[in-house]
Design goal:
The chain is 43% helix and 13% strand. It is built from 8 helices and 5 strands.
């Protein structure tokens, strides 16, 4: 991976966990470009003193902004500490963000242990490693049902 652009998102009940995790790994983040949703980004910036490009708060569209950045190839890693025990009004946005991470094949961590494994991967130091971008040309060039009749 040449340039590592990490988006970090945490639901309210997971923000303290995210901040503690980020503090533990702040030396790793010095070489990364950091992105985050509103409050999470601000808290990370305050906790480690590193600039975080902040999007809107998740419920106000920040999850969708990060999803768009993933689709445009601007984000190549997502750490999203989501709360599996709480239903949130913006659940469709959350599902869309997780889906886009899968669609564009970017590394995704949703727990402290998966984030630990991802952040300590030797592939992060391997500048020749490239995330394999899926080829959706057949999908984008297909005929829709309206075109087939």
């Amino acid at each position: 991976m040449k340039q590592i652009n990490v988006a970090m998102v945490a639901h309210d009940n997971k923000k303290a966990e995210m901040i503690e995790w980020v503090k533990t790994h702040q030396d790793k983040f010095k070489t990364f470009n950091l992105f985050g949703t509103g409050t999470t980004g601000r808290l990370i910036e305050e906790a480690i003193g590193q600039k975080v490009h902040r999007y809107l708060s998740g419920p106000l569209g920040g999850d969708q902004q990060i999803g768009a950045a993933i689709s445009q190839g601007e984000i190549n890693m997502l750490i999203f500490f989501w709360d599996p025990l709480e239903s949130l009004p913006h659940d469709p946005d959350i599902k869309a963000l997780l889906r886009l991470a899968a669609v564009w094949n970017i590394p995704l961590a949703c727990t402290v242990s998966s984030a630990d494994l991802m952040i300590h991967s030797t592939l992060l130091q391997d500048t020749s490693y490239e995330i394999k971008q899926p080829d959706y040309s057949q999908y984008t060039s297909r005929k829709t049902p309206a075109e087939q009749s």
